[in-house]
Amino acid sequence: MTPAVRVEHLVHVYPDGHRALGGLTLTVHPGERVAVLGPNGAGKTSLMLHLNGVLTPTSGTVEISGIPLQRKNLRQIRERVGVVFQDPDDQLFMPTVAQDVAFGPANFGLQGARLAERVQSALEVVSLTDHAGRSPAHLSAGERRRAALATVLACHPELLVLDEPSANLDPVARRELATTLGALETTLLIVTHDLPYAAQLCQRAVIMDHGVIVADGDVRDILADTELLSRHRLELPWGFDLTTP
Amino acid sequence: MGAGPTALLYRDNRSAVHRIPAEVKIVALMVFVLAVVATPREQFWCFGGHALILLIVWWVAGIPMRWVLPRMLIEAPFVVLAVLLPFAEGGERIEVAGLSLSHAGLYAAWGIVIKGTLGVAASLTVAATTAARELPLALSRLGVPALVTSVLVLALRYVDVLGAEANRMRMARLSRGDSPRALHQAGAIAGSVGALFLRSYERGERVYSAMLSRGYTGTVPDLALASGGAVRAPARVWAVTMLPAAAAVLVAVSAWLLR
Q1: What is the complex's ipTM, to 2 decimals?
Q2: Which of B133, B157, B209 shows the shortest C-beta gap to A54?
Q3: Which of A35, A154, B7, B69: CA 20 to 30 A from B113?
Q4: Could A93 and B212 be called an inter-chain contact, meaning their C-beta atoms sit closer than 8 Å?
C-alpha cells in the first residue's frame, strides 16, 4: 500500500540560517489519524508547510500518495493535501464565506453547478450553510474555524493537516469541531500541543523536538509516558486523566 | 468586529437602488461625477439641478439626509484648502465685510467646494446602496484587471481585521495608563503603528501561504458567480440607472449652451 505521506531525511534551513527541520523521517498510512506534538519552535509548522510544497526542502524528500514533491507536481500535491492554518483570519480572505469555500475548488478547475454543489456540501459538513453569504468578519471564532475547515474540505483532500485546531475555541466550539473532524474519513495530521484533543481525535502520536521525530507510537502510550512528555516540554493539563474517556 | 469602514458606509435596505447590480451604479456614478466636473462653475443654477438629482436618488433609495450629512465630513480637508484660496489668489480683488478677497479665488473656492460636495455625496450614495462584497465581481465585469480586483478583495477583507487589531492594541495601551492626548506619549502610538505594520506584513505572508495551499497560481477565479453573485443587468436596468447620470449630463450641456 502506498503511504499517504512519506517524508525522508527532511532538512529545512531558513534563509536566516535557522535549522527548523534536521533530517526528519515520517510515514503516515491512508486513513491514519496522527497527532504531531511538540513544544513551541520544534518545527511542527515547518513540517506542515512542506507537506504541500509551500516550503521547499533544503534536502530530503517528501512524497504524498507516491507523488514526489517537485515543482511540476505542486498542483497535484496541493489538490491532495489540505492545510487548515491556525488563524482562520489568514485563511478566510474573500468577502463571503461561500466565495472563500469556492476559492480552492475553483483553482483546481471546478466551475458552475459542480462548484456550487461542492461549496454547498462542504458547508453542510461544518454546519454553516446558513452563513454562506456572510462576511467571515461577522462569524464567531468557532464558526470561523469551521469555515476555514470547509474551505479546505471543499477541495476533497486525501490528507488533511490542521494546525492547532482547538486554539482560541470555547469548550462547545471545541467539541463541535471534534465531532466534525471525527466524522471525516480522510487521513488526518493534527499539529497541536493540546494533548487531550490529540487523545480524543487520534490513534497515533509523534513527538517532534528540534526538528526531528523523537517518539512515535499509540497516542495513549505516548501520553502515559510522563517522563517522555516532560523531556520535551509537554504535559497533560491539570486534572486530566487518560483513563476516564 | 464588523464596525469597520465598510460597515460604516453601507446602509442596509432593500430599495430599488440597492438591487441594481453594482457595475451599473459605478458607471452611473462616473458619468455623474464627470458631468458635475464639466459644468462651468459660473452657472450657479446648474449645481442646484445636480443636487436635485441626488436628492431624488436618496428619496428612492430611502437614505435620510441626517445619515448622509455626517459622513460628508470626509470632505473637510478639501474645504479648508478651498477656504484659503480667496485670500491667497491674486488678480482683481473685492471687499467683503472688510476682507479683501480675490475674485478668481472666490470662484475657484466655490468650484472646489460645490463640485467636491456633489462628488462626495454621489459616491456616498453608491457606497450606501452597494455592499462591499458586490464590488469585486462588478469591477471585473467592467474589465478591471484581475490583479487589481484581487488586491481590492484582500483590502476589503483585511481592513476590518486590521482595524480590530489596532483597536486591541489601543485598549492594551490604555489599560496600562497611556493617555492618547498627551504629546509625550506619542512615542507609544508610533511604536504600535510600527508593530501593526510588522504584524500585517507577517499576516500577508501567512495569507499567501494559505492561498498557495489551495492551489492559487496568481489569479483569483471568477467564483462569485457560483455562490449567489448578482446576475448581469439587463438593458432595461442599465437604462433606468443611467437616468440620473443622463440628467446631470443634460444639465452640464445646457449650462455650456446657455453661457
Answers
A1: 0.79
A2: B209
A3: B7
A4: no
